[in-house]
Amino acid sequence: MFENKTEQEAREELLKSVGAYCRKYKLNQKPFQAGDRITYAARVYDEREMENLVDSALEFWLTTGKYADRFEKDFSEFLGVNYCSLVNSGSSANLLAFMALTSPLLKEKRVLPGDEVITVAAGFPTTVAPIIQYGAVPVFVDVTIPQYNLDIKMLDAALSDKTKAVFAAHTLGNPFDLKAVKEFCDRNGLWLIEDNCDALGSKYCLDGETKFTGTVGDIGTSSFYPPHHMTMGEGGAVYTNNALLHKIVNSLRDWGRDCVCPSGRDNICGHRFDRQYGELPFGYDHKYVYSHFGYNLKATDMQAAVGCAQLEKFPGFIEKRRNNWQKLREGLESLEDKLILPEAEMNSQPSWFGFLITVKPEAGITREELVREMEGHGIQTRNLFAGNLIKHPCFDEMRASGKGYRVVGELENTNRIMNDTFWIGVYPGMTDEMIDYMVKVIKEIMQ
Ligand SMILES: Cc1ncc(COP(=O)(O)O)c(C=O)c1O
Phi then psi for 301, rounded to 5 degrees? Predict the structure, then answer.
């Protein structure tokens, strides 16, 4: 088949066919018709993603390699941060971000078991899970509606002499009050981890300087699971401007090792056999020296290859998400007496993940009834993840004992979200026709 062809020529021919296949069989979507299913999210891609994916398959390096290197470099440039570590999911990114704060290399700033971390219960479980898994104590504060973010008025009340960090998400793309939270952290010597998994591309203006969310605190995290702002199937990233935190994150990601040479490449530093570590024999192979109790949370090069192509499209995705959100906001405005519509945080430009709606008591319909009707018309809906995480079975033991977590004030809005809130999509593949249809259906149900 490839007679007289070099490997490069053969590869180019294959990739051309892959591009043609993608255009013919994957991109030929039929136009939307009323009643077709409107998912809350979907992958948006073209032949570039598929060609990159096949290119990395033909390379057959499989593990983290040249595409991962490229992604880490391009992604940190995009965000304007010094360091980025590609990982295999957003949950892994959160685990690494938190566990990095427990490293002995941070000395007295290190988070120890029993220390407290301020967070919220109205969100995704894996923002909180690493805190509990390590034996630190999540301290839950309420959120505000209609921003759905951490209520900064509760921060001072949540502070104790054990508080070491704030770890919270920018909910569905809406940045939390980064100015107030950052000032609180700085004033009290706390770490700030921004779970940016649902807010990639959101911006916040802090003291006259506009920055991407995830880059204001000490560490930011992203998820590249398919519904998210961009995808590589499974994937995530941890980013920081702090060289020591970056070194710790990479060590924890890569089995806990001390050596920073990329997998499969030896002795880049030139000191593989000439140092003393712990109580090991002098000159012990640095590749097998462990400075942390780590994991293996690396992504594969196939995932990174898809991510590289998605990143090229990303600015367009952000724009489309904003336009879709705005169109829904304007379309549903007349229902504000029955539904609470979302609002962007002050000083922010959200890159929306979804459109949150809270059903008012006077609406004459419950969230369940509304959602069931919408689903019946083909419109996919989602709850704000856990609603109130403390009410879940994973909390049964802790709730019964009253130990292992703290609640500050009443989680009134958190409980309201658990009962009355849901969201619909604004993903970049959504067309004006789909949005008009969603608005029409919601209005008809609410009449
Ligand atoms: C706020 C938040 N953090 C973390 C995650 C976890 O990301 P992943 O699904 O890639 O593990 C999610 C998942 O959607 C999320 O919404």
Answer: -70, -25
Position 145 scores a pLDDT of: 98
Q: What residues contact residue 164 under an 8 Å CB cut-off, 6+ apart?
A: 101, 109, 111, 112, 115, 116, 117, 136, 190, 191
Domain 313-446 has CATH 3.90.1150.10: yes
What pLDDT score does 371 carry?
98
For residue 395 and ligand 1, the question of a CB distance below 6 A is answered with no
Tell me whether the omega of the peptide bond preceding residue 226 falls within 30 degrees of 0, making it cis.
no
The rounded percent of the chain whose pLDDT value lies above 70 is 100
Q: How many CB atoms lie within 10 A of CB 52?
A: 24
Q: Ligand 1: distance of its center to the CA of 239 in Å?
A: 15
pLDDT at 260 over 90: no
If one residue of 148, 174, 225 were mutated to test the ligand 1 pocket, choosing by the most ligand atoms within 8 A of its CB, it would be 225
Asked whether residue 296 carries a pLDDT value surpassing 90, the answer given is yes
Residue 58 is encoded by which pair of tokens? 């033909």
Q: Which of 40, 91, 170 to mutate for ligand 1's pocket (most ligand atoms within 8 Å of CB)?
A: 91
φ, ψ of residue 191 in degrees (nearest 5)? -75, 150
| Domain 54-260+291-303: which CATH number of 3.40.640.10, 3.60.15.10, 3.30.70.270, 3.30.70.580 | 3.40.640.10
Q: Please indicate whether residue 124, judged by its CB atom, sits closer than 6 Å to ligand 1.
A: yes
From 86, 131, 198, give the residue whose CB has the most ligand 1 atoms within 8 Å, as the site to mutate. Answer: 198
CATH 3.40.640.10 maps onto the chain at 54-260+291-303
Provide CATH 3.90.1150.10 ranges for the chain. 313-446
Coil, helix or strand at residue 5? coil
pLDDT for 269 beyond 90: no
Residues catalogued as catalytic:
228
What band does 264 get if pLDDT is binned at 50, 70 and 90? Answer: confident
Residue 343 CA to ligand 1 centre (angstroms): 22
Question: Which residue is listed with tokens 């140092």?
Answer: 275
Q: Please work out whether the CB of residue 195 comes within 6 Å of at least one atom of ligand 1.
A: yes
What's the CA-to-centroid distance between 369 and ligand 1, angstroms?
27
Q: 127 C-alpha vs ligand 1 centroid, how far in Å?
A: 8
Answer yes or no: is pLDDT of 262 > 90: no
d(CA 161, CA 270): 44
Position 361 scores a pLDDT of 97
